[in-house]
Amino acid sequence: MIKPIQNIFTKKAPEGFHFDDKEFAELGMKLKKNVSSVFGRSLAIREVDTGSDNSTEIEMVNLTTPHYDIERFGITFVASPRHADALAVTGAVTRNMELALKKTYEATPNPKIVIAVGDDACNGGIFRNSYAVCGGVDKVIPVDLKIPGNPPSPKEILKALLALMEKIKKRS
Amino acid sequence: MQNQEKELREFLKGVPIRLIGCENGNELYANADEASFPTSMKLLNGKGFTLISMFCEEKFNSSRFTLFYVFERELFDDVLVVVRNLKSKKAASVMQIFPSASWYEREIMDGFGIEFEGNPDKRRLFLHEHFPRDFHPLLKSFRNSHIKSNNGNKAEYMFKEISGEGVYQIPVGPVHAGIIEPGHFRFSVIGETIYNLEIRMFYKHRGIEKLAEGKTPEYCVRIAESISGDETAANAAAFCMAVEKISSRTPPMRALQLRTIFLEMERIYSHLGDLAGMAVDVAFPVGASPFFILREKILRENEQLTGSRFMKGIMAIGGLRKDVSEKAIKNLRKFLDAFEHEFEKALDVVYSSPSAIDRLETTGAIKNEIVRPLNITGPAARACGFQKDTRKNHPYGTYSGLKFNIHTSENGDVMSRFNVKAGEIMESVRIIRNTAQNLQKGPILSKARIRDGHCLSLVESPRGQSLHWAHIKHGLVYRYKIRTASFCNWQSIEHAVMGNIVPDFPLINKSLNLSYAGTDL
């Protein structure tokens, strides 16, 4: 019984951890400014896995964990394509996921951005010529940004998002 | 080892199979006659053998198709491989005797077009509707290339339905709400209680086994690494071990020791993700964050050691592709001391939260009775009290010389799996520390010609036992069969969720931590 009471009043466990990743924080702040000017306030991303080896998913989840905490820069991962500004697609597109990806794309409101995350999503990777895949994401839906890597690290994903925001800003 | 084989031979007396002999150290091969096949299977089941894998190969010998049934039994280090040569494209099913055969038989039906008489489930497994009807990608006559989709045959996949007053279905997936891999779940529920769950997988089927065919074994290491990202080291090591055994080539001690370190690092970060996930799924982010923080630290350590956060590109046939610096090893040892302390603190946060524990206890229990028939493996089996661990049962690498405990629990519920995984993290830390302390100096790669032959290799990945079968012919991969732990354990979830409420499904799913990529191949 003492433990739970202690737990309420003592310092929370995560408070003991300190991160100091200045480069990431600076990049993030820049990204936040850009997201604010391009999207009003925040950028909502829907993640779709169409055949990755799951390491890319782990890195995407990592973006939301305490070290990176990407939400502080105005970027959220949403549960439905209907709430999304952008789709982040991972993995070569398998034949078995082709239809699901098309439907997800159609369910996303216009204007929409498609980001291919990881080598396989960019061009199909080693699965390019397999009977079971269509190829990279751009073989199925139009792609605006490709982030290479096997898998790309959280920092690389963040950098790429920043580059995308700057590109959109220039265009408009 | 010799004694082992003798004992197993003795034990198999009375089963109408012809024992051929032991290969690669611990594979006892036997031939089975078609006429006495069902009897042999029944007798093996009666003697307590578990069917751990089943696969097909074309033109293995003079028969067009050969089926391999791989069995394991407690107390025996050797595995039994029953070879069944088929005279036609039809074979009697064994799923009534070994229920785990159901998925294997459907898999072989898709891949090779072999019909299993007596298996009531004739639905295709990894080939979804748009693949043409008579398409069997693993036949040698099919050259791997893009194929035309079959728009005419869009027959709906029939899910098993239960009906009655108040029963309704909830379809979920393949695209889920979280950042997670795709799969389809069909719940039949009354109110909130789950009465039936049927899963449909293989949305991520990338054709890995076909892709490996005709490639050099060296290139195939890369393919093994792409099976499942967070089991990179385990799968790559398993494939390398198979080729090494075929070529009678033992990696230098230092390489084996470093492999052990990588395999255990992988176990730690994978389990940390699960512990965090379980806390997230009971709406307890305060408990999840410390685990996420520690996982990130492990991923960074991985990068220091191997140059990749997921340890990609380090394994090689005969050892490792590059060495690890003394400095990195020193840092690792220092890191582990701090890690142990932080991990204990993180565990304390969860263990001292009654509301979190309340959600974990009694949820998603796997009954003991299904563990052997479905060949449930890894932490899921150990959480049911089974002393199953490939590192102990079929030791490989440096594991035979290491002292470590198998963590088990009794209840088979989410809480038990949480406890087992937490215990295994601490055990892995001890293994790494011990190995790093005694790390030998010397080369990391032994060079030798790759020989032709075939071999099974078993590893304990973070999710449980994974089995790899490599067959090298004329220096190239002729057949590469992969059966990951997830392939077996996915079938347990349909049982684990019975009687639970739908909102607990994500929690049960997370506690089993199944790889979609590793199942779908």
Give the CATH topology of chain A.
Rossmann fold
Q: Give me the Rg of chain B, rounded.
A: 23 Å
Question: What is the terminal-to-terminal distance of chain A?
Answer: 60 Å
Percentage of helical residues of chain A? 40-55%
Instruction: Give the name of the CATH architecture of chain A.
Output: 3-Layer(aba) Sandwich
CATH class of chain A: Alpha Beta
Derived structural class of chain B: alpha+beta
List low-confidence stretches of chain B.
none
Average pLDDT of chain A works out at 88
Strand tally of chain A is: 7
Order of helices and strands of chain A: HHEHEEEHEHEEH
CATH class of the largest domain in chain B: Mainly Alpha
Alpha carbon gyration radius of chain A: 18 Å
Number of strand elements of chain B: 15
Q: Judging from the principal axes of the Cα atoms, what is the shape of chain B?
A: globular
Proportion of beta-strand residues of chain B: 15-25%
CATH topology group of the largest domain in chain B: Cytochrome-c3 Hydrogenase, chain B
Count of alpha/pi helices of chain A: 6
Short description:
The complex is a heterodimer of chains A (172) and B (521). Chain A is α/β, with parallel strands linked by helices and 172 residues long.
Describe this structure in words.
The complex is a heterodimer of chains A (172) and B (521). The model of chain A has no long low-confidence stretch (mean pLDDT 88). The longest helix of chain A is centred in the N-terminal third of the chain and has 18 residues, at 22-39. Chain A has 172 residues and is an alpha/beta fold. In chain A, strand 1, helix 3 and strand 2 (75-77) form a beta-alpha-beta unit. Chain A contains six helices and seven strands. Chain A is globular and about 60 Å long. Chain B is globular and about 60 Å long. In chain B, the strands form five sheets. A five-stranded mixed sheet of chain B has the order 1-2-5-4-3. A three-stranded antiparallel sheet of chain B has the order 8-9-10. A three-stranded antiparallel sheet of chain B has the order 13-14-15. The longest helix of chain B has 29 residues, at 253-281. The two termini of chain B are 34 Å apart. Chain B has helices spanning 2-11, 37-46, 101-112, 208-212, 217-225, 232-246, 253-281, 285-306, 326-351, 354-360, 379-382, 390-393, 414-437, 485-496, 505-512, 516-520; strands spanning 17-23, 27-32, 50-58, 65-72, 79-86, 90-92, 115-117, 167-172, 184-190, 193-200, 315-316, 319-320, 453-461, 464-473, 476-483. Chain B has three domains: 2-117, Beta Polymerase, domain 2; 167-200, no CATH class; 208-520, Cytochrome-c3 Hydrogenase, chain B (Orthogonal Bundle). By secondary structure, chain B is an alpha+beta fold.
